[in-house]
Amino acid sequence: MHAQAADRPTVLFAHPSPDLYGSDRMLLESVTAVVERGWEAVVALPADGPLAGLLRDRGARVVRCCHRAGCRASWAGRSGACVPGLPCCVPSSRAWSTSTR
To answer: How far is Cα 20 from Cα 26, in angstroms, rounded to an integer?
Structure first.
């Protein structure tokens, strides 16, 4: 049994695809290693798909998150539409942050 989430590190993975190709399978292996270490794995995906179910089976928490370039542009104050009601993942120089639109 894992420690409470507050007592263990959390790793956020932001991935652009919910499919099962090469990079998606590598993400699955990375998430598996993080969970086996006893850490919490949170994976942000743009949609539900075959990868999401496998990640959940391996112990990750999967969240839907808009990764569109227009979404990031709107965060920077330029025009661009985010998916209404969907958290928006925005890259920064320090880390990934999420904000609900």
So the answer is: 10
